[in-house]
Amino acid sequence: MADFVFVLKNVLVVSLAMNMCLIWKISVVDVETLAFRWSSWMNMQQKKLHFHGVCFNGDKDDIREKDAHVSTRTQILATTSSGASPDGAKTVVINLDHGDPTMYENFWKQKRAETTVVTPSWYHISYFSDIKNICWFLEPGLMSAITRLHKVVGNAVTEDRHFVVGTGSSQLYQAALYAVSPHNASGPMNVVSAAPFYSSYPLMTDYLKSGLHKWAGDANEFNKQEPYIELVTSPNNPDGFTRQNVVKGDKGILIHDLAYYWPQYTPILVPADYDIMLFTVSKSTGHAGSRIGWALVKDGEIAKKMTTFIEINTIGVSKDSQIRAAKILQAISDSCDHANQTNADTFFDYSYKLMAQRWKQIREAVNKTELFSLPNFPPETCSFSGRNFGQLPAFAWLKCEGEVDDCEKFLRRNKILTRGGKHFGASMKYVRISMLSREHEFKLLTQRLPAITS
């Protein structure tokens, strides 16, 4: 019996060793083979998977389309190894669909000492931050940091405003819709925005099917004698232009999305002074993953309803994220205050120079070909920096010229993923391209665009 047990143990050990070797052999696949398999799989899936949230169930005649902020679950990274051949850059897929602000990483790596937050485990246990405030889960430190930064930059009025913090400006947008829509109306409130509008507005407006509001399309075409909510995004996503409201009715409520009203993207002309203003750290500082946004609201009752929406939706907003955001905003304000005492670039200096350089490079790339064009922006003097410049949008609103009718599809054939104009209520000859990617991705873009011939 002992001999049998001994033999059985030996068999198990040998079997285990053979299996481990097999697993190791399968797992050790060179990078080129993985890339080839990945590319082949993607080619097979293109008829099933649309890169902008279009869902196919396998039947070409039955397409269910949903446009989302993050358009695919699978991110295709434009990354090559240092040992890759020059031809490898021609075959890698560049994903510039999302507005993921990874270009800011290098700056913040240099500021780790000033912006690192250490949180003891017993901090932030309570739901409550300031029960005297309408927005009772807003951390006082974040409110102070926001107030100070707006004062330093001069891009928004904060006096006599109520502050509401949200999980990014997307949650605040939905909270604002909830707050301004009549709850006793006979039908849903119309929601409009001038095309090209932010591609997620239609989806977010109708997603909950609450009955309080409904997406009613392009504000330029809205002529109903009914109450409406107009969304004014300035600078606009996707085309970068400064916007004002366009509907000339007397039954409208305005919500101003000012995510890009910062001096790296646009000249700051005057402090914004509107009833409801939405901001986010995603585009102001680049910290999209922290999921922090804030609203400046004139009417206390609207601020209360927005707070109620967030309370029901998520029972407040992460204090850890708020404290981190406050630390980062304070660091930016500190650097601006001390700008004359040091030779180091402030955050906005660094960001402006990087955006200006990227726009110069993409314009040079586009000018080398007759296939594409970009909008032009008149220069204006920024009250914050004193610089005279035109818009430097976070997205390039690229147009395919000539006989190309579907610019998104055309660029996809050349392994550049973008978001097509139809998602923004515009012509399919346009695409939105993120200008906020990592440097190597942007470099690949500017190399590839002028090389495209058909």
UniProtKB/TrEMBL annotation:
GO terms for molecular function: carbon-sulfur lyase activity; transaminase activity. The keyword Transferase applies. Transmembrane segments: none annotated. SUPFAM superfamilies: PLP-dependent transferases. Keywords: Aminotransferase, Pyridoxal phosphate, Transferase. Residues 94-451 form the Alliinase C-terminal domain. GO terms for biological process: amino acid metabolic process. InterPro entries: Alliinase_C, Alliinase_N_sf, Ethylene_sulfur-biosynth, PyrdxlP-dep_Trfase, PyrdxlP-dep_Trfase_major, PyrdxlP-dep_Trfase_small. Its cofactor is pyridoxal 5'-phosphate. Belongs to the alliinase family. PANTHER family: BIFUNCTIONAL ASPARTATE AMINOTRANSFERASE AND GLUTAMATE/ASPARTATE-PREPHENATE AMINOTRANSFERASE-RELATED, TRYPTOPHAN AMINOTRANSFERASE-RELATED PROTEIN 2. This is Alliinase C-terminal domain-containing protein.
